[in-house]
TrEMBL record:
Domain called HTH gntR-type: residue spans: 29-97
CDD domains: AAT_like, WHTH_GntR
Keyword annotations from UniProtKB, A to Z: Aminotransferase, DNA-binding, Pyridoxal phosphate, Transcription, Transcription regulation, Transferase
Signal peptide residues on this chain, from the entry's feature table: none
Protein name (record): PLP-dependent aminotransferase family protein
GO molecular function, a single term: transaminase activity
Pfam families xrefs: Aminotran_1_2 (PF00155), GntR (PF00392)
The family this protein is said to belong to: In the C-terminal section; belongs to the class-I pyridoxal-phosphate-dependent aminotransferase family.
SUPFAM superfamilies reported for this sequence: PLP-dependent transferases, Winged helix' DNA-binding domain
Domain of life: Bacteria
InterPro entries the UniProt entry points to: Aminotransferase_I/II_large (IPR004839), HTH_trans_reg/aminotransferase (IPR051446), PyrdxlP-dep_Trfase (IPR015424), PyrdxlP-dep_Trfase_major (IPR015421), Tscrpt_reg_HTH_GntR (IPR000524), WH-like_DNA-bd_sf (IPR036388), WH_DNA-bd_sf (IPR036390)
Length: 492
């Protein structure tokens, strides 16, 4: 349909009945996400053609019996993810032609979409049999006793500490603890260049808000890579340039080619225990990346959220770019959410003085109060010494789980490009080019939540990949169920 001739007959397939069909019994999606899924499913199924106009916000609000604000936010999200485009004065139109899911025998309308799986992993339903695809440790692995003691210690302190606004850079004693912690990984950061955040995701958002405000600006990301990072950047309207991740880090030829052609200003990556592969950047590649950063005026955002799951003995075998660069061109991001508790949203960002100054400005505008209680709890855990012992126990338990999980997957015919010796994840290739999304959907119907490879990549080649959280896979009923499905497929 020509751009200048919008349809005057909005589709009638978007209604309350279609909306009610989106969520399965295991889902707990918000109305915004359900409208998002409903529209994307109909695009993929061919019910909404490229260039076709959708309902107005008011029309869809009436048809689905939801508020206009809900529809407006869903449309904004669809635009941010590249499914729709907004034409001022005309409405919302389908931007891209749908495509059926690859390697799936079911109709596209009944096949799950990557967007649905990301929601399932971020907000897992209650009552699942297993969650091998989740990105968190089992609740029973967390230091509940230590966390309780820290909370009680904060509660006993004077309430006056919590009456006023928190320091915009975070609780000073915690930043002093972080300064000492960073020295252990050869990063020399004065407290003035450390900012405490509400987790790593919040740190990334602050960086985007303060330094990447131009819609359509190209930024570099690793492929495969964390889906929450990709979604966060896309929701900000940025154009993602995907750099293939090799066994020893980002592909340097692809990185250089992007720098020459697009001149991006930022590269988001992970040096240690990369998700989903659990791989590390080799020292020589880290050095070459920093040389490219100098040549092309590139800022590197190094996410080290899994840092404390790496054994101290292995610290000399890996290289963090922030330790080589000392925060000149590298912005270093860390988090405690993986090790303390997912609900304890405390992270941090370290950078040069100019970057910290910009982050302070945007932090003041959007989050003036900070996370005072959480920051004091984390300070208690770090300063009393229990946190180091807790992380050592986590690493030991992960080591006990990892090889048995690899052995079980190998017995089913799965293969591995690399076999990690640390971290939470194993990145496996399913046997016989089995479509991981279709397999995950079949397992989800029996209550097993997986993490198929297409969630972590925007390119072809990962349809048969699956990420397994070893802490939630060892002894899980998911693997026997998966084995039965794979065996049935071989016999078919």
């Amino acid at each position: 349909m020509p751009r200048g001739r919008p349809s005057h007959h909005p589709v009638i397939t978007l209604n309350k009945q279609a909306l009610d069909q989106v969520a399965s019994p295991h889902d707990r999606l918000s109305l915004v996400d359900r409208i998002f899924d409903m529209v994307v499913a109909q695009i993929r199924a061919g019910k909404l053609a490229a260039g076709q106009r959708l309902h107005s916000v008011r029309q869809l609000s009436d048809a689905c019996e939801v508020s206009r604000d809900t529809v407006a936010r869903a449309y904004d999200k669809l635009v941010a993810h590249g499914h729709l485009e907004s034409r001022p004065g005309s409405g919302f139109f389908v931007k891209l032609k749908g495509r059926p899911a690859r390697g799936v025998t079911e109709s596209a309308s009944s096949q799950p979409l990557p967007e649905w799986w990301r929601f399932r992993l971020v907000q897992p339903a209650v009552g699942l049999e297993s969650g091998t695809g989740l990105g968190s440790l089992p609740p029973e692995w967390l230091d509940e006793e230590g966390l309780g003691k820290a909370l009680r210690a904060v509660a006993r302190a004077s309430v006056r500490n919590l009456i006023g606004y928190n320091d915009v850079q975070g609780y000073l004693p915690l930043r002093q603890q972080l300064q000492a912690k960073l020295r252990d990984v050869q990063i020399d950061a004065p407290v003035s260049r450390i900012m405490v955040t509400s987790g790593a995701t919040h740190a990334i958002q602050l960086i985007v808000q303060s330094m990447l405000r131009t819609v359509g600006e190209p930024v570099l990301v690793e492929d495969p890579g964390p889906f929450l990072l990709r979604d966060r950047l896309m929701a900000s309207g940025l154009e993602l340039l995907t750099v293939p991740r090799d066994a020893d880090g980002p592909n340097l030829e692809a990185l250089r080619a992007y720098c020459i052609q697009h001149r991006p200003r930022f590269f988001f990556c992970s040096s240690v225990l990369h998700s989903p592969t659990s791989g590390h950047i080799s020292p020589h590649k880290a050095f070459q990346i920093l040389r490219l950063a100098e040549e092309f005026d590139l800022t590197i955002v190094e996410d080290d959220s899994y840092s404390d799951l790496l054994p101290p003995a292995d610290a000399t075998a890996v290289t963090r770019m922030a330790s080589l660069d000392q925060l000149n061109r590298v912005i270093y991001v860390g988090s405690f959410s993986k090790t303390i508790a997912p609900g304890m949203r405390v992270g941090y960002v370290c950078a040069n003085a100019k970057v910290i100054e910009w982050l302070q400005v945007y932090r003041t505008v959007g989050d003036i109060a900070g996370t005072s209680v959480n920051e004091r709890v984390v300070y208690q855990l770090l300063s009393q010494g229990g946190y180091r012992h807790h992380c050592a126990q986590l690493r030991s338990r992960l080591d006990e789980c990892r090889q048995p999980v690899i052995d079980q997957l190998g017995a089913m015919g799965c293969t591995f490009e690399q076999r990690p010796n640390a971290g939470m994840y194993v990145w496996a290739t399913l046997p016989g080019q089995v479509n991981a999304m279709a397999l995950a959907d079949a397992l989800f119907k029996d209550g097993h939540l997986m993490a198929p490879g297409e969630l972590f990549s925007r390119t072809n080649g990962y349809e048969s990949k699956m990420r397994f959280n070893v802490s939630r896979t060892q002894g899980s009923p998911a693997l026997p169920a998966m084995g039965r499905l794979l065996e049935a497929r071989r016999k078919a």
